[in-house]
């Protein structure tokens, strides 16, 4: 069994001072939303063994905030995070299309994590989430059909022993959450 977590970066500023899209930083809402998703992840393991992150500033800022919130949540519940995930910044994730994302996921077989997280960008992350899910949480699939919003997290399970065997329509959507959905859950 392999578990794949797709996390879209959090909300960002409209323009970077440099004018370069890769330099856009998280705005205040993005920082709050990333922390909220991190707290959710810390309370709902398993956690990633390997995290592949786009080199865009907004993507690695998202991961850093998520990671800190995971550690804080776990520390409140137990003692400490039992292991730190390995993190790799991958340039090919910045402007990846769906095929490149799938190739990148399949290359995780060399590290062989049980749980892999990819932190990246739309539209490819949303397209990949739609293409991977062949079954699973009906409400989550319906919510995900419209968009993978900023700070949206889609978690898939694959009944395979090797990342090389991950394929479109073979995943089961185990969970889909976003800051908006988490707020709706609290309000209900």
Please summarize what this structure is.
By secondary structure, the chain is an alpha/beta fold. It is built from six helices and seven strands, in the order βαβαβαβαβαββα. It has one domain (2-14, 24-187): Rossmann fold.
Account of the 3D structure:
This protein has helices at 28-43, 57-77, 98-106, 124-132, 138-146, 179-187, and strands at residues 2-8, 50-53, 86-89, 115-120, 133-136, 153-158, 171-177. The protein is of the alpha/beta class and 188 residues long. It has a single domain (2-14, 24-187), classed as 3-Layer(aba) Sandwich (Rossmann fold). It has a 7-stranded mixed sheet. Helix 1 (28-43) crosses helix 2 and helix 3 crosses helix 4 (124-132).
Structural class: alpha/beta
- CATH fold-level label: Rossmann fold
Secondary structure tally, helices: 6
CATH architecture tag: 3-Layer(aba) Sandwich
Annotation, overall tally of beta strands: 7
The percent range for strand residues is 15-25%
Coarse morphology: globular
CATH class equals Alpha Beta
CATH superfamily: Phosphoglycerate mutase-like
The number of distinct structural domains comes to: 1
Tell me the distance between the termini. 33 Å
Radius of gyration: 15 Å
Topology as a string of helices (H) and strands (E): EHEHEHEHEHEEH
Low-confidence stretches: none
Major sheet: size, sense and barrel closure?
A: 7 strands, mixed
Major β-sheet strand ordering? 3-2-4-1-6-7-5
């Amino acid at each position: 069994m392999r578990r794949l977590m797709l996390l879209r970066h959090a909300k960002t500023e409209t323009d970077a001072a440099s004018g370069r899209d890769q330099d856009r930083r998280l705005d205040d809402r993005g920082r709050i939303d990333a922390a909220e998703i991190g707290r959710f992840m810390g309370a709902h393991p398993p956690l990633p063994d390997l995290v592949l992150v786009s080199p865009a500033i907004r993507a690695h800022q998202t991961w850093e905030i998520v990671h800190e919130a995971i550690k804080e949540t776990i520390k409140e519940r137990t003692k400490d995070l039992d292991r730190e995930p390995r993190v790799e910044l991958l340039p090919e994730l910045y402007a990846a299309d769906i095929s490149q994302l799938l190739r990148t996921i399949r290359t995780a077989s060399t590290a062989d994590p049980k749980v892999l997280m990819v932190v990246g960008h739309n539209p490819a992350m949303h397209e990949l989430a739609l293409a991977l899910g062949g079954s699973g949480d009906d409400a989550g699939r319906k919510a995900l059909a419209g968009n993978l919003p900023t700070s949206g997290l889609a978690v898939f399970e694959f009944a395979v022993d090797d990342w090389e065997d991950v394929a479109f329509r073979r995943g089961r959507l185990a969970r889909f959450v976003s800051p908006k959905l988490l707020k709706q859950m609290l309000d209900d």
